[in-house]
Amino acid sequence: MEITSINTESLSRMFLAGAKNLEAKKEWINELNVFPVPDGDTGTNMSMTIMSAAREVGALSNPTMKELAKAISSGSLRGARGNSGVILSQLFRGFCKVIKEYDEVDVSVLCDAFQKAVETAYKAVMKPKEGTILTVAKGAADKALDLAQETEDLVYFCDEVIKHAEYVLSQTPEMLPVLKQAGVVDSGGQGLVQVLKGAYDSLLGKEIDYSIEETPASAGTAKVSAPAEQEIKYGYCTEFIIVLTRPLSEKEEKEYKSYLESIGDSIVVVADDEVVKTHVHTNDPGLAIQKALTHGSLTKIKIDNMREEHQEKLIKDAEKAAAQQKEQEQKKLLANYKGRESVTKSGRKINLYANIGNVSDVAYVLENDAEGIGLFRSEFLYLGRDELPDETEQFNAYRQVLQMMADKKVVIRTLDIGADKKADYLGLGKEDNPALGYRAIRICLEQPDIFKTQLRALLRAAKYGNLSIMYPMIISVEEVVSIKKIVAEVAEELENENIPYEIPEQGIMIETPAAVMLSEELAELVDFFSIGTNDLTQYTLAIDRQNNRLDRFYNPHHEAVLRMIEMTIQGAHKHGKWVGICGELGADTTLTERFIKMGIDELSVSPSMVLGVRSRICEME
What we know:
alpha/beta
């Protein structure tokens, strides 16, 4: 794909995508923030800065390039928070000085905009420090200058600029020893890279939610990391906007900056004809405020006590370290259960399996010493694509898992699309209540060609390991009879085609009250039950588990749910069939003893929970 120019609409969408990407990554970026550039939570500050501009951009209707540039420039300046936020606003300001003169942006214009962005940002900082967002921005601009003579393709140009920006970012620990000591890259530089990556995704046409929600302004919290308190020379991070009574002359601006330099450091001053954005670290915020009041009124004043925040950070770090130590000790303790059977002290054996969602998860199953796979969600083959997977693709995936698990049991659930899992190419349409709608086995029985393709792949794969097939969302005996008929047809087809196959163990998921009430009749037709407690809870309590408003009513420990689990176990055992639990309750160790007393035969949990559940089983009488 080659793109040689970007119009206003495209650039607007790129900016919004960059803003959304930074917003999504802000907490991660916050974790990178370290002294000696105490900038509050860098990710939050940068996000507040760009989202202020994004809201102005989002409010525009068919803007010109000049109108877009003004919205980005003024919005980011007025919303700027912290050192990195102010610098980011200046990068945007310089960028917009160039693009506002054009109807479309090409490589040459974009290159000039990068140069002006860096020039403007460096001018705003009294004492620029390398190894920060400024360095990353300059690296990107330098690369842009090199590429401008080589290509007209914006896709290639942007990709290479971002790659170089990431390289420069990776070098920031070599420029700032404190970053190297902490083992992180510069947080502001990382924030800038995420903005560029989001914009690039939009340029490539990736699906992005461009909506910008109105959010109340937050003061944010200063966060200082690592060294001792005495390293903080100036204790108050102070920032505000001066609404000017008249524009500052060059001499007045210089005098104002000099005064701030005499009372503090980390000074960033950005002035236009209407406002002056000020950021300074000082021991007397009142002096900075008094000086600012001689030029106009103040708005968006924010003062953080960095020493106080530093103490809180030390406490938080100590608590985090203690929690990590406890986690490591717990892991060591659980490691003692690797290689052991899941057997109670009285000798009751429980099959302890793992739930997975794709082939790569098998590594975690083996790492955590699960005895098999109790739920392999086959939906991963159907989601995130535009067409159905064919028989060969499915066969290869199932065979790979079976071979990786050797002779250990692998229970593969057939297609369970619908409700919260969507595949547009199936044409399922919108439903008012999808949890009770056209999903799972209902799709398979209504569209047998889809079902038969999966069954062919499964029966063929059964030759390569210990496979069990499990059918979801069963509510009647008739459904199971229909399924067995289709399986027989598939087996006959494979036989006639001389394709090796086996009909493996077959079971059903018990997820509905209907299936519970019919458990005795259903047990006569299948080899096993696996109780899906998530949906069983939902349907038993008449609560949509996707509705957050109902969270306080959603109680998987509800006695009605537990009695249904026990009724299911009794129904299966009456006909000599085994029963497992593959829902979240399987990993709830507060219920493990009760489940075993009910007679449960198998528990299938996320791989990371296997050893914890095993330890609970082994501790029981």
